[in-house]
Amino acid sequence: MVLTNSHMFITKYRKWFISFSAILVLTGIVVIGSIGLDYGIEFTGGSVLEVSYEQKPEIDILRTSLFEGGFENVLVQPFGDNGYVVKTQTISEEDRKALVSLMNVEGSEMSIERYNSIGPSVGRELRTKSLYALIAVSLGIILFVAYAFRKVTYPISSWKYGIVAVIALLHDIIIPIGILTLLGTEVDTLYVVGLLSILGLSVNDTIVVFDRIRESLSDNQEKNKKESFTKTVGNAIGQTITRSIFTSLTLLVVLLALYFRGPAATQTLSLVLLLGTLVGTYSSIFLASPLLTMLVGKEKKDVQ
Amino acid sequence: MLKIRLIAFTFIVLGVFLGGYIYQSQETQPFKLGLDLSGGSYLVYRADISEVDEGEISDSMDALRDTIERRINAFGIAEPNVNTETHSLGVEGTEQRLVVELPGVTDLDEAVDLIGQTPFLEFKSEASLEEQERINDEIEVLVSSLNTDEEGNLVAGEEFDINAIMALESQRYVNSPLTGKYLEKAQLQFSQGGIQSGGSLQSQPIIALSFDREGADLFEELTRNNIGRTIAIFLDGVIVSAPVVNQAISGGQAIIEGSFTIDEAKETVGRLNSGALPIPIELISTNTIGPTLGQDAVNAGVFAGVLGLILVGIVLVLWYRLPGLIAVIALGIYTTIMLWMFKTIPITLTSAGITGFIISIGIAVDANILIFERMKEELKKGANRYAAVEIGFKRAWASIRDANISSIISAVFLFWFGTALIKGFALTFGLGILISMFTAVTVTRFLLLSLAKKKGKSSKIMRFLYQNGFNK
Lengths: 304, 472
Known about the structure:
The complex is a heterodimer. Chain A is an alpha+beta fold.
């Protein structure tokens, strides 16, 4: 097929691809830095009340009712077909009861779909824990990849594979976060779960290509065949590209089904994963392996 | 060859059997759904341990958990979950928390009251004679309504309604004004002498109560009015002892002599001393999910999952033809094994957990694709199908193994560091990868081998079936 022969241009124009990724990552960082993440109450602490009505009252009636009841800093938004969601800072049990009764306007039958109140300390903990988990996973991956590739020390040392895998991983997380920040997506717990899934998938994808490189290197050594590292990497990309595209295609199919027909609650999650899969597939082909050839370029000139 | 086909066949039978079992047992043993899917309340309390000695924190927290658990159990809520957790807050030290999960309780008021209500120590005196008669009669009616055989034994299937009888029994006593409110302190003591056990004198633990001035007066009055009768001491609504009063007792000292073990007595003393709960608690976080919201999520999730699987199946078969069909069967078996494990272990399924499972399906598909791609390479080099499967498999294995081990490492760290939600994700994700590795090396492999001839030319049809559409 066409793709199998086009792989060499990837290593040939690696500077372009790497620069492209670098620009996207930097843009992502700038976007995240300037707009900031819209943390949900799980992270900041606060309360969310989600109610549904038999007959949905006008939003202004609710706002007035809440304002007159003393809830001045609350956010009321429509939710679903016949409900509203109310967000406030963390409130006490008494305030919650007051809030519920204020929402019960017009005598329209109301039921509470969800109430979630998170103390500030719980939110802070979730943030630090998510960060710790990310750091621990990154370190674990560097160590494992360095171990798994320990026999492959020529032409670049094995721990560099690990570092490149982590660079690809950060790339795969930062770009989707950037896009989601632009879209104004709220960071809730499922968003974090989505990012964690990307971690797993990204590494999985990258290692499959690396493994192919490792195999070719040891084959070449056995047969005493001289081949430039760049060529080996190019071949490895070519040999795995069908698989990479096909695997992400099947994942995308599932995720699209989940996004369009799945529960409303997991829509953000599917979106995070969709972006992550696309970016992750791109990075395993166009970023991780070209980066490897860059590293060898610095360490040792290619035997072209 | 026959052996390989037999093994392959066994896998399919196993898959069908598990699938049938999962479907059949849905009535008797449904999947365990987390609160976000089943509806319910999730409450997090902070325990105030500032007054507790460092060494006793763990014991006190256990006592707290047991107390809360008893209170919840008294209300007959199915499968409540009460846990204590130690949380690190970084530089600010640690925080002890009590996490309560109440499935099905979607009314937060009810849930908070349930935990916060304060059952206590009560002293009760005997009800009037007429009342005693009435209770005796009612118990007799209850007992005689049961079917018995000639020897007076219960007919199979008949059971005493213990709760009804207990409820009646507790009516034998009426409230007095004396409650735990007037308690000044409780102490663990040991009765002098006591029961002979194994030749040595065993002392029996007793609980000594001291009332405050008001309580002492009430106690004196209560005892004076009940000389020759019993006074029942109730703890959390359960009668613990009913001593006979010999004389009026002044000075506000009382003793509870129950058949306690030392540990029970110790715990009770602890609870009495610190009011209703061994440690004061404060509600810091709540999460209530209504019943419809969770159900909608499950329905939509199942629909999307099935739709996604069918689409993946179509894509696999169109692209890889016969091997694609094998992958679909292997995925089916993988899914049934996972669902069976969710049921049997059991693993509580949350939306995060289900996501982990769906991602693991993606990785399971990937393992199949890796094998097929390698197999195709071997076929192109001119290997026969059997050899192509074996070599393709061997070569793909290193990729599958390393990629999956790194994913498992992620899962382990996420489980280790994560919050409850992340843990749920990490568990199904990690388990899914382990099982998918197993199904890739066994199910897919044997199914492929069973369809490949070792020798001779393959027919045109088989060659077509083993190629994919884009490769000529």
